From TrEMBL:
Known EC number: 2.1.1.14
Protein name: 5-methyltetrahydropteroyltriglutamate--homocysteine S-methyltransferase
Keyword 4Fe-4S among record annotations: no
Cross-referenced PANTHER family: 5-METHYLTETRAHYDROPTEROYLTRIGLUTAMATE--HOMOCYSTEINE METHYLTRANSFERASE
Alphabetical UniProt keywords: Amino-acid biosynthesis, Metal-binding, Methionine biosynthesis, Methyltransferase, Repeat, Transferase, Zinc
Residue span, Cobalamin-independent methionine synthase MetE C-terminal/archaeal domain: 418-740
Occurrences of domain Cobalamin-independent methionine synthase MetE N-terminal (ranges): 9-313
Family of this protein: Belongs to the vitamin-B12 independent methionine synthase family.
Length: 748
């Protein structure tokens, strides 16, 4: 930003490497196949290659400290020494990964979704005993990385999670407000800024995405206070406060009232920012870092439009720097890794590397060094059949009232009170994994693949019968993941070969691209569901991924409102549900774990979202008979605000994660708000701890205080996909025993 006006930068960059080197290195380290030195060396290599890439592409300002072995919020917690008591005896990488993943018997930090991006960060824990202090110089990551880049001849702008965001994302012990610790935390940031300045840093970027959420006047005052204090430091780098993920509203005037040198605004998902900026008279003496290139989606930027936005911003700021709307960590690295994409689609895409070029180009165009090229993109032709069906079906026919349905279903299924079931996926055996990989690579044919899948289903069904579960699942061996499996079979989607992004420190996903009108050419799950059902007399659930989750976990087109895309998805699923029902599958579960992920950051926008998100679910299920039992599954912290929406899905049975978030313990009172069947998870299926029969029976008794026995289902929190085959038996056996035990006490 000392460069001639205007410049170009990005707010952050993928850290996972072109070949997922980060994933491989961390997994090897956890498995003991790589030592600490090897891991650290891989980190250095990854950082090095990012810095060189960014420099070679002509960026004027290059960020550093965007690397992380796990998560940037976790890094910040360590940086300021916010280490919970239970990890204090550990050191270095041990402490780091223990906080991230837990160790035997010691739970790690909770994870939470990062501002609607699909990325999950760790939740720092603070309380009365928290004493912030700056990690010792050598362990101060921002400083170390700044110096490391410098040695390589790259001048960088260290990126930090801002103090307000850090505290507002933290979980506090009871009766404690994280913001009460602001002054202490600010002093640590102050010390860090001074050290960075001493090392030569000209600029520091403080990420404050929390400004895109509703803040109280107290929180806004804290924002002003924090940045006035930091800006008063006698020797410090210039400060860029970067916001992202939407409109920052009232926070802009507050920030503008502090002497920070630069403010970053998102002009992609925050269309109101332009108006707000104008309303405060612009930032005549500051630098505006204008996020005009979408950092969260994979579409090519319409350069002329972006340039027009920049042109209108030129009059509203002292200096203008073209940038991305947020860190590029949320998009895949390089389109060049996708030679096989269909050319028309490919021409419409831009991954992290290409977005850098866009930002650089826009900077040059604004300096009138060159004109932006005209790029015409062919949009997908609309599928008129799909559009017409969406119009004609509207909301679909509402189902009968639950009492009517449930009586009909009781006659058909004759399930005992407190029926036991699981959520869908079973652990993936080495053989299944190998077979899937071989089949994908063309090393084995479909028949060989199917044979292994059938054998796996046989095994999973027999296992569940042996354990005495009431409603069975087929175990999902044919699905590598719950989104890609459907995206691959639906029209309107395309899968990438290498388009990986980090969904959490230890979770990598390859979101499909949703670029056209969606329809379902042929049945997707009927074959395996009916095969599984043919192996047992007990009911087997058909399991589908819901419309909102398919939308949330894809890179979706932006030329249609999300509600309209979701309706198309719902129709495709409706066809599938119809075929499952016709094939004799009487219980169908539609998973919507991402219902919460698309929840708008601003409260005022939530009612609208929840109304369409629930209506598309009802549309998908609207055609079924009263006797068909519709289940849904929601995992990841569900809270009061989503609860009403979950019940508006009007499923016959809802399984929800209830055992896992330690901060929101199993609550019968909440589950009781459903009028229909409900299965609050009685144990954490993702932990290796198997609770005993008594513990689970007690949980069930507790739930029965607020839920009638004919509505209460017994199930774990979530699926078993990430577990090892040997790990699940004890917990499941105990769960079934607990249900039987409680049933007996009911009839006694
Ligand atoms: C993240 S929710 C997962 C639901 C899916 N049916 C499973 O059991 O894996
Ligand atoms: Zn789940």
């Amino acid at each position: 930003m000392t460069a001639p006006v205007p410049g170009a930068t990005v707010l952050g960059y993928p850290r996972i490497g072109t070949r997922l080197e980060l994933k491989r290195a961390t997994e090897d380290y956890w498995a003991g196949r790589l030592d600490a030195a090897g891991l650290l060396e891989m980190g250095a290599r990854l950082r090095h290659s990012v810095w060189t890439d960014l420099r070679e592409s002509g960026l004027e300002q290059i960020p550093s400290n965007t690397f992380s072995f796990y998560d940037q919020v976790l890094d910040t917690a360590l940086l300021v020494d916010a280490i919970p008591e239970r990890f204090r005896h550990l050191d270095g990488l041990d402490a780091y990964f223990a906080m991230a993943r837990g160790t035997d018997g010691t739970p790690g930090l909770e994870t939470r979704e990062w501002f609607g991006t699909g990325y999950h960060h760790l939740v720092p824990e603070v309380g009365r005993d928290t004493r912030f202090r700056l990690a010792a110089a050598g362990r101060s990551k921002p400083l170390a990385e700044y110096l490391e880049a410098r040695t390589l001849g790259v001048e960088t702008r260290p990126v930090l999670v801002g103090p307000l965001t850090f505290l507002l994302l933290s979980a506090a012990s009871a009766g404690f407000r994280p913001l009460d610790l602001l002054d202490d935390l600010i002093e640590v940031y102050a010390e860090l800024l001074e050290r960075l300045s001493g090392a030569g840093a000209q600029w520091v970027q403080l990420d404050e995405p929390v400004l895109a959420t509703d803040l109280t006047s107290h929180e806004l005052a804290a924002l002003g206070h924090a940045y006035r204090r930091l800006a008063r430091l006698p020797s410090r780098p210039r400060l860029l406060v970067a916001t992202a993920f939407g409109d920052i509203g009232d926070a802009l005037a507050v920030l503008a009232g502090t002497p920070v040198e630069a403010i970053g605004l998102d002009f992609v998902t925050g269309p109101g920012n332009l108006r707000t900026l104008a309303s405060i008279g612009g930032l005549p003496l500051r630098t505006l870092v204008a996020g005009v290139v979408d950092g969260r989606n994979i579409w090519r930027t319409d350069l002329r439009r972006a340039l027009a936005t920049c042109a209108s911003l030129l009059g509203l700021a002292g200096e203008l720097v073209v940038s991305t709307s947020c860190s590029l960590q949320h998009v895949p690295l390089d389109l060049d890794a996708e030679p096989d994409l269909e050319p028309d689609l490919r021409a419409r895409l831009s991954f992290a590397r290409q977005k850098i070029d866009e930002v650089v180009l826009l900077g040059q165009a604004l300096r009138q060094e060159r004109a932006v090229p005209r790029r015409d993109v062919a949009m997908n032709a609309p599928d008129h059949r799909v559009r017409a069906r969406v119009d004609v079906l509207g909301d679909g026919r509402p189902r009968a009232e639950w009492p009517v349905r449930s009586a009909a279903q009781r006659r058909v299924f004759g399930l005992p009170p407190l029926p036991t079931t699981t959520i869908g996926s079973f652990p993936r055996s080495a053989e299944v994994r190998r077979t899937r990989a071989d089949w994908r690579a063309g090393r084995i044919d479909e028949a060989a693949h199917d044979q292994v899948v059938r054998a796996e289903i046989d095994r999973v069904i027999a296992f569940q019968e042996r354990l005495g579960l009431d409603v069975l699942v087929h175990g999902e061996p044919e699905r590598d993941d719950m989104v890609g499996y459907f995206a691959e079979q639906l029209r309107g989607f395309t899968l990438t070969a290498e388009g990986w992004v980090q969904a959490a420190g230890d979770r990598y996903v390859r979101p499909p691209i949703l670029h056209g009108d969606v329809s379902r050419p042929v049945p997707m799950t009927v074959r395996w569901a009916t095969y599984a059902q043919s192996r047992t007399d007990r009911p087997v659930k058909g399991v589908l991924t819901g419309p909102v989750t398919l939308l949330a976990r894809s890179y979706a087109r932006t030329d249609l409102p999300r509600a309209d895309i979701a309706r198309q998805l719902a129709l495709a699923l409706r066809d599938e549900i119809h075929d499952l029902e016709a094939a004799g599958i009487g219980i169908i579960q539609i998973d919507e774990p991402a219902l919460r992920e698309l929840l708008p950051l601003r409260r005022a926008e939530r009612a609208f979202y929840l109304s369409w998100a629930t209506s598309v679910f009802r549309l998908a299920t609207s055609g079924v008979a009263d006797t068909t039992q519709i289940h849904t599954h929601i995992c990841q912290s569900w809270s009061q605000d989503v609860l009403a929406a979950i019940s508006a899905l009007d499923a016959d049975v809802t399984s929800v994660e209830a055992a896992r978030p330690r901060t929101e313990p199993l609550s019968g009172a909440r589950a009781a708000l459903f009028r229909t069947g409900v299965g609050p998870g009685v144990y954490d299926s993702r932990s290796s701890r198997a609770p005993g029969t008594d513990e689970m029976a007690q949980a069930l008794h507790h739930l029965l205080q607020s839920i009638e026995p004919d509505r209460l289902w017994v199930n774990p929190d979530c699926g078993f996909r990430t577990r090892e085959p040997a790990e699940i038996e004890t917990a499941l056996r105990n769960m079934v025993a607990a249900a039987h035990h409680v049933r007996r006490s009911l009839s006694a």
